[in-house]
Structure formats: structure tokens, C-alpha cells
Design brief:
Elements (H helix, E strand, L loop, with lengths): L1 H17 L5 H6 L38 E9 L5 E10 L8 E7 L5 E11 L4 E4 L19 E4 L12 E4 L1 E5 L2 E10 L4 E11 L2 E3 L5 E6 L2 E2 L3 E10 L4 E2 L7 H12 L12 H9 L5 E8 L6 E7 L2 H4 L1 H35 L4 H40 L4 H34 L1 H29 L7 E2 L1
Parallel strand pairs: 1-14, 16-18
Antiparallel strand pairs: 1-2, 2-10, 3-9, 3-13, 4-7, 4-10, 5-6, 8-9, 11-12, 12-17, 14-16, 15-17
Helix pairs in contact: 3-4, 6-7, 6-9, 7-8, 7-9, 8-9
Keywords: Membrane, Signal, Transmembrane, Transmembrane helix
Length: about 475
């Protein structure tokens, strides 16, 4: 049994050693069979591979199926004029492999453009591989300041360009509704590029009955598909736009530099921090709208209203609100007359003289109106104090503010219940239930009127919002 166990163990060990060809122990034990020359297996040492000095960078060139990117900044002015700044990023995907020397854009037919300017953007990619740093041959002293040179640059990414390049004025030809831009530096096949277009135009906005401007901004049409389109709309600093805020007049001033800069009037490429600033703001505004996957020669429209006062801007809403208030007052008057008739009928049943009844009813009606007015003033003033308290709590400690808000809500519930019902119940207890109900109803009416007046004051003279509105 012991011999059998040793034989099996030796057989298993031999199989394991035969499966390890690089093992020196196996080569020493299992020799070549007799009759054959000794076979010595020689293995060459593995080649020494040095890791590259840089990580492989993926190719960021746009694929063949991608379209153009259009970013707009539109500033609406008080005379109905629109100042448009457009940045276009595109790729040369000509099937014949030719260079792209000109680009055509189609403007809306209803506008009258002026002061047109076009600029081609040329940018440099980031460095992918630097030159090797030389060693100090002498080995003594301070090492020399090393400024590594770049051996390989990546392709510039114009689809995510936000400044830092150079700009060269491009010639253009505007005929009928087509703007043709001739690129100073042709775009090679399967390469990308970008250019700017600046113009002022009348026809985007028209005045309505209330003196506000109703605008419809329509994007320019391109021969290729548009992958992404962003439109940022704003107004001059003294204008108001519905759904946003007009506090971006600096965009218009910076856009003027595109035409007034002495460098821009020359023929060579130049760098400009002012134009970089404009490009970084393109696509922003008080109202920002986005579109995607537009077909060739397809446009995108954005409509809205702006004016130099909130009264003109919300004229339609104000008129509708006034008619609504008058309708509510008419219904309240009818309800009050019904209540007075009921009270008057109860008084006649008690055989009170008619002349004395009419005089008492008039006095009681005035008293009900006065009590309800005083109660509504107290509740309205308390509401204003509550709003101020909540605004103050926004800057207080979170835990303390939470406790104070809960306490204020509980106290407010009690205050409004007392201020709304207790005066009416007391007056109804003294003069009759009908007069008490009338007092409560008039208190609610006064509060509704205060609320409507507060909204009107807020819309006409209220604070402006600083954050843009996205759709």
C-alpha cells in the first residue's frame, strides 16, 4: 500500500513539472531520451519596452454624421431693433474631398439687416506630446530654465470653443435673403472650423396696441443639418421682457467692438479679449431656449413681448384683471342687497317703522363696512410683517429659522381666524346674524382687493429677477 501511494504521488508530480516548461528543476530531472542528442531550450530575454511619455488622446474630431452648432445672443432695443451675434461651428464633410471656402446662411425675409460683419475663428489645439527635457551636461550650478517645445498638437475643437483664438475678418455677399461668407482660411476636408456673424436688424419686433413690442426671433437657415441650437434673448437695461429680465446691455456694447476695433478692419488674423468676452456670453440671456436636430433649411422661432414699462408689458392682463374685479364687486353688491333685503324683511316682521328701519339699516351697513375695513387693514399689515419675517429668516440660522417658521404659521392661523370671524360674530350678535355675515364677507373682499393691488404694484414697480429662465 505504501509503495502504491509513492508511485501515484511520483506520477502526479511528474505531470505537474512537465506543465512548467520554464522550470529549471524540470529541465534537470527530465532529460532527453537516450539515442537523441541533448536538447537545450534557449529562451531569449523579453524585449524591454518603455512606457510612452503621454497618454493616448482620443480623436475629438466630429464624426461624419454630426451637424452644425449655432449659438445666438439677441439683444432687443427700445426702437424695435434686434442686435444679433451668432457663432457657428461646422465640419467640412464634402463627399468630393474639396476644401470649404464659403458658407451660406439664409436670413428671414421679413427683416432688414444692417452693419453686417463676419469673422472666421482660428484656434490651436492642446499639446499632445512635448519635447524631451535635456540634461545638464556639466552637472553643476543651477539648471537652466526649461521651456518644453510641443512636438504634436491635437485638432482644435471648435464645437466647444469659448475664446483664446484668433479672428480674421471675412468678406461676405448679401443678396435677397442669402448671406454668403467667404472664409479667409479654407477648412480642409474632414476638419472643423467656426465663424462669427454680427448684424442689426429691424423687423423682428412690432408694436402692439398697448405700446409693447411683440417679437418673433427666427434663426438663420443653413444648408446642413443643425445638431444643437441655443438662443439667448435679452433687452437693454431700461427694458422689461415677459418671463425674464433686461439687464444685459453690456453685450450690445461689446458686440459693437466687432465693427469698431481697428484690428478688425484689417485683413490679418488678430487676438482680441473683447471678442473672447463676447463669445463666452453667446447663448446666454434673460430667456434661453434650445433646439436640436434641425433639418437643412429649417429654422427655429422664439416669440415674446418686451416694453419699457410693466404697464405696457402687462396691459392685456391688467385690463382683464380690472374687468374681473368689477365683476366680483358687482356680484358682491348683489349679494349685499340680498342680505339687506333679508334683514329688512326681518325688521318689518317685528313691526318697526319703515323710516326708522331704513335709517338703522344704513347706519348698520356703514358700520359693517367700517369694521370689515379695519379688520382687513390689521390682517393685511400682519401679512406684510409676516413676509418681511420670512425674508429675514432666509439669512438666519437654519434650525432657529425652522422653529420660527413653524411658530409663525401657528400664530398666523390663530390671528387670521380671530381677525376674520370674531368682529363679524360680535357684530352679528349685537345687530343680527345677517349683519355679522355681511361683515365677514366684506372683510374677505377687502383682503382680495389688497391682494390684487399688491400684485399690480409688484408687476409695475416690483423687483427684477436676476436668474435667466430656461425652456
Amino acid at each position: 500500500m505504501r509503495k502504491l501511494f509513492l508511485a501515484v504521488s511520483a506520477f502526479i508530480l511528474s505531470l505537474v513539472l512537465l506543465n512548467i516548461p520554464s522550470s529549471g528543476f524540470a529541465q534537470e530531472i527530465f532529460l532527453a531520451p537516450s539515442g537523441y542528442p541533448d536538447v537545450v531550450e534557449q529562451t531569449e530575454p523579453a524585449q524591454l519596452k518603455i512606457a510612452p511619455e503621454y497618454y493616448p488622446v482620443p480623436d475629438r474630431r466630429p464624426p461624419h454624421f454630426s451637424g452644425e452648432n449655432h449659438d445666438y445672443s439677441v439683444v432687443l432695443r427700445g426702437n424695435g431693433e434686434a442686435v444679433v451675434t451668432l457663432k457657428v461651428a461646422l465640419s467640412n464633410l464634402n463627399p468630393d474631398g474639396s476644401e470649404l471656402t464659403a458658407v451660406s446662411l439664409r436670413l428671414p425675409s421679413r427683416i432688414l439687416p444692417s452693419d453686417i460683419a463676419a469673422y472666421q475663428i482660428t484656434a490651436q489645439g492642446y499639446c499632445m506630446r512635448y519635447a524631451q527635457r535635456p540634461l545638464n551636461p556639466e552637472g553643476i550650478g543651477m539648471p537652466l530654465k526649461y521651456n518644453p517645445g510641443c512636438l504634436e498638437y491635437s485638432e482644435p475643437d471648435y464645437f466647444d470653443y469659448y475664446g483664446g483664438g484668433k479672428y480674421q475678418r471675412a468678406k461676405y455677399n448679401y443678396s435677397l435673403d442669402t448671406l454668403e461668407i467667404f472664409l479667409p482660411k479654407p477648412i480642409q476636408n474632414e476638419k472643423s472650423g467656426a465663424f462669427l456673424v454680427y448684424f442689426r436688424a429691424l423687423g423682428f419686433a412690432r408694436k402692439n396696441f398697448f405700446g409693447a413690442y411683440k417679437f418673433t426671433i427666427e434663426s438663420l437657415k443653413a444648408a446642413n443639418a443643425i445638431n444643437n441650437l441655443n438662443i439667448g434673448i435679452s433687452t437693454d437695461a431700461d427694458m422689461f421682457i415677459k418671463g425674464g429680465q433686461g439687464e444685459v446691455g453690456y453685450r450690445y456694447a461689446n458686440s459693437e467692438m466687432l465693427m469698431k476695433s481697428p484690428q478688425a478692419k484689417g485683413g490679418g488674423a488678430f487676438a482680441s479679449s473683447a471678442i473672447d468676452n463676447v463669445i463666452s456670453q453667446i447663448g446666454q440671456g434673460a430667456i434661453v431656449k434650445n433646439a436640436a436636430n434641425l433639418a437643412p433649411l429649417e429654422s427655429y422661432k422664439v416669440s415674446g413681448i418686451y416694453a419699457n414699462s410693466r404697464f405696457k408689458l402687462y396691459g392685456k392682463e391688467i385690463i382683464v384683471s380690472v374687468f374681473g374685479i368689477l365683476l366680483v364687486l358687482a356680484l358682491i353688491t348683489l349679494l349685499a342687497r340680498k342680505i339687506l333685503k333679508y334683514v329688512r324683511g326681518s325688521a318689518l316682521k317685528k313691526e318697526i317703522k319703515s323710516d326708522q328701519t331704513q335709517e338703522d339699516n344704513s347706519i348698520r351697513a356703514v358700520m359693517a363696512a367700517g369694521i370689515s375695513f379695519i379688520s382687513s387693514l390689521i390682517l393685511g399689515g400682519y401679512g406684510i410683517l409676516l413676509i418681511l419675517l420670512f425674508n429675514y429668516l432666509n439669512y438666519a440660522d437654519y434650525q432657529i429659522a425652522m422653529l420660527l417658521r413653524v411658530a409663525a404659521m401657528i400664530i398666523s392661523f390663530c390671528v387670521y381666524i380671530v381677525g376674520l370671524f370674531i368682529p363679524g360674530l360680535y357684530y352679528g350678535y349685537k345687530k343680527g346674524m345677517g349683519w355679522g355675515v355681511l361683515t365677514v364677507v366684506l372683510t374677505v373682499v377687502w383682503l382680495i382687493i389688497y391682494f390684487i393691488l399688491g400684485l399690480a404694484v409688484f408687476f409695475l414697480f416690483g423687483f427684477k429677477f436676476s436668474n435667466p429662465v430656461y425652456y
